[in-house]
Task: structure prediction
Amino acid sequence: MDLKDLYQEIILDHGKNPRNLGKFDNYNKDAKGNNPLCGDNVHVYLRLNENKKVEDIAFEGHGCAISMASASIMTDMVRGKEEKEVKEIVSDFLGMIKEKDSLVTNILKDDEKTKLMSLSGVKQYPMRVKCATLSWHTLTSALDNSDQIVKTEE
Result:
């Protein structure tokens, strides 16, 4: 199996069977995001403990396979990480999806990097970049306690 096929398999799996889908009780941060051009909607819920570590994270929403896969992969990546690490992962992912060729963070294991890199092909399709990044921007908004709905368009 070549890398392109592996990436496609990861996206299809997470898109059809999203992990961490649903709302949980006792979240202490949340944010909503919307991509009006394609109808993607996401609501991210997370619980940070007193040490600012992500104890739990989930999302609700609907959208295209890229949007759902990205949110699913994101929730897997940041669970158990400290807020500072989460922000580094988000920054690295957004850089990779928009301009860089690869991820540079040392926080993630190789298999985690492979999952994130599976979304790298969307950079060839600017409209799809918004689908892939919506949940990540929404996570940042939740961490920052913003009450603004994240929108891909003004």
